């Protein structure tokens, strides 16, 4: 059985649509565990007023963050497979059915993901889609570290429970990129399979999404570096050359953003805190100097060009099947909610 874990915090405007998309799956063999992380709005009331399905379990906890809520959900999960769906995202109706088919046809799999639509919540228009073109219409084992930014979103990924536990679950001290850390750790030790179908909808511009100020943005950058360092340690131990190369690129990708923002506090933080051995100290000292900004930007863009030459896709990648995928996207229409 698949256990669906939904962490919930103040999602009164979206939780109804999320649950509706789950309960209208073509396959009905699943349980839903909603972990409320101390919501102060009507989220819980909406669930209790509109959904009376015996497969739903609601767990309440004090506000400890999304990783804590997800880990708590796993502790209470009965299924051999788990999937984490955010309370403002949805699935297409056959997501669970396709996951079961993939699980049954690939018994050696430990983690199975699919492609996602990225949709503007208010306009209900597709911003982009994340499809690995070489996998379109197929199920195949691939290396997560060829580019995690276009791999499956955590909400589109089904994970074997024992593999999740072996990886230590979500790191509750990390508030950003915690999903990349978990999925990276699992894929480094287990088999990752990709389904070339668009079955998950990730919404942007959702009501209640936090706008980052400088302080929160810096915390995000620090978490990203922490994830890079932790995965790099694992990759070195495993001698995973693909992962090591990707993590170096990921470092430069975020470093470029920091430099463009003239955030030299974070530039120094990155050059001081990145794992020793990833780069030469002389190079790091050079790129963190403000007077070398132009040289640094050119250097990083050359790295990005080489990355693309090696056929690694960008975060903003749009599939060559884009027109077909857009044509086949239909929003899930939901009935009125009882407030």
Q: Could you characterize what this model shows?
A:
Helices cover 42% and strands 18% of the residues. By secondary structure, the protein is α/β, with parallel strands linked by helices. Strands 1, 2, 3, 4, 5, 6, 7, 8, 9 and 10 form a ten-stranded mixed sheet that branches. Strand 1 (2-8), helix 1 and strand 2 (30-36) form a beta-alpha-beta unit. Helix 7 (214-238) runs antiparallel to helix 8 and helix 8 runs antiparallel to helix 11. The mean pLDDT is 89.
What Rg, in angstroms, do the CA atoms define? 20 Å
Number of strands: 10
Helix content: 40-55%
Unreliable sequence segments: none
Q: Based on CA inertia axes, which overall geometry fits? A: globular
